[in-house]
Amino acid sequence: MPSFSTPTFQLQYTPLHSRIFFDQAHNTTINGFTPYANTPDPNWGGCLQCAAIDRSRYKITPSPPRSSFCSQCFLQYCYDPQNPPSSAELPNRHLQFVDPDPVGLDQLEDFLDYSRYKLMGGFIGLFMFMFMSGFGLYVVFFYFASLSLLLSLFLLLLVYC
């Protein structure tokens, strides 16, 4: 899950978010990437050297051309908005930002996505228990009344926190 490209005005990050960000930066800095694979790039060190000396080429008149090795590195590692990498070129990578620390409604959505079947099973089991135990409509009425009260309290907490 990518942890970069965070909102511009976000100035504080949780320890989890910071750790994920630094782990990703470290892995990219140390390993680079091989297109169409999940393995480190064996030429990454040479590509870093190309990037380090590329500007100095322009200080010499006439400017020497880039080597074919360096040209290949710049094609691989420099982003071209006219030709963005395909998802096949970056396998097993998520290209959308995913906040590792969701809050508010995002956190509720994540919880509901994760626990959807557990909650449905619990509600079905609760209804089966109520109808089989003989409480009937009396219990169902109070159950829905208490459920609506809990839901309204939960929404108040979300709005004011």
Overview of this protein structure:
The chain is an all-alpha fold and about 160 residues long. It has 2 domains: about 100 residues, no CATH class; about 55 residues, no CATH class. The protein has 5 helices and no strands. The model has no long low-confidence stretch (mean pLDDT about 75).
What structural class do helix, strand and pairing data support?
mainly alpha
Beta-strand residue percentage:
under 5%
Mean pLDDT: 75
Rounded to an integer, what's the Rg over CA atoms?
Answer: 27 Å
How many separate domains make up the residues?
2
Helix/strand order: HHHHH
How many extended strands? 0
Principal-axes geometry comes out as: elongated
> Helix segment count?
5
| Biggest pleated-sheet summary | none
Q: Percent helix among the residues?
A: 55-70%
Q: Ranges with pLDDT <50 over ≥5 residues?
A: none
The N- and C-terminal alpha carbons lie at a distance of: 27 Å
